[in-house]
Amino acid sequence: MLKGKEIVLGVTGGIAAYKAAEFVRLLVKQEARVHVVMTQNAQKFVTPLTFQTLSGNPVVTDTFALIEEAQIGHIALADLAELIVILPASANIIGKIANGIADDFLSTMVMASKAQVLFAPSMNVNMWENKALQKNIKTLRDRDYHFMEPGEGELACHWYGKGRLAELGDVLERVEDILSPKDLKGERILVTAGPTQESIDPVRFITNHSSGKMGYGLARVAKRRGAEVVLVSGPTSLSLPHSDINLISVKTAEEMRKAVDTHLKNCSVVIKAAAVSDYRPKEVSQKKLKKTASSVSLEMERTRDILGEIGKKKGKRILVGFAAETEDLVSNARKKLKDKHLDLIVVNDVTKPGAGFASETNQVKFLYPSGEVKDLPMMSKEEVAQVILDEVSGLLKRKRK
Ligand code: PMT
Fold this sequence. Notes:
The protein is about 35% helix and about 25% strand. It is an alpha/beta fold. It starts with 5 loop residues before the first strand and ends with a helix. Bound molecules: ligand PMT.
């Protein structure tokens, strides 16, 4: 999502400046174009050469360096920036920008830019709690500047409290949030993810290999694109993809069905990426089954088809299903598309390396009620989620014309 985005990283003087180097690496990994601006104090902590090497671009260190000014003057960089991230942001730079002071390259460039600005503050806890700083932050928040909340813990100055630089992964997530189009704003999207577990006895259950990655990717991207997201998830080891997502944790297919039913009401879109058990043991033993017999048989009964039931009462909703197949992908998925009254089915061959269960990537085909089939290349699950949500966005527009 950050591919080709022009991001200016302002580094100010603070011990967390060394973390900015890692942040550049993360941005470059996402194929963003990174331009680093360092204040004079930042250069006392880390050298410009580190940032130049990691970003592959010249580093701006001085407002009045004529050669640099000719190459990438503050106006050029201010215009080029799609986002300015100040990490770490000192109390000094926050105070200067809040009060319209432009006395070095970074503060001058921020003043000259129309790009959004994200501050990731890092400082001593007493500085953080200082009323002047808090007033400056409020001033900037009121002017739609973005802030990462600093973390709490032992600080480099050995004080304990708030002031640690936010986790870099969280800053990256916020960058992606800010730069994402908000085309799903106003939509309420219900996503299901992960496996279900059907108990046999108090210690054993039947499940499948779903990790939840595909569904969590969908929830994360939908949230980034402005939707309100309800994520109904079976048991996974993943952490909540976004703090503003309403996560409903369930175990069994029946619990998932009830949770979906409860939250379906105001949803305009339902995406069912969960791998739901089609069968469950007819009887759940209250006691652990003993290994007395040489073999055992379990009688299984069907679970209810959650998506099939929604399909029957879909109304104006957009319904997207998945199909986990091992053979005859298109014909099997086409049947599910029709039987469940879906607007789109995403089929993956779960026997293919790098696709389906638990992998970071997936390779899918889209099938539409018109009969059209679209083949997609192998992509990260988050990229697949982006493409699915592009389709959803288009379907919503067409439906409302
Ligand atoms: O979680 P990951 O490790 O990232 O793996 C991703 C995935 C392989 C689980 C995902 O890409 C996927 O294919 N999910 C659907 C798995 C599945 O249950 O497919 P199915 O063909 O059995 O079911 C078809 C559709 O009906 C699915 O949308 C499913 O959620 C739904 N269903 C199935 C049974 C049931 N009782 N109720 C349902 O709603």
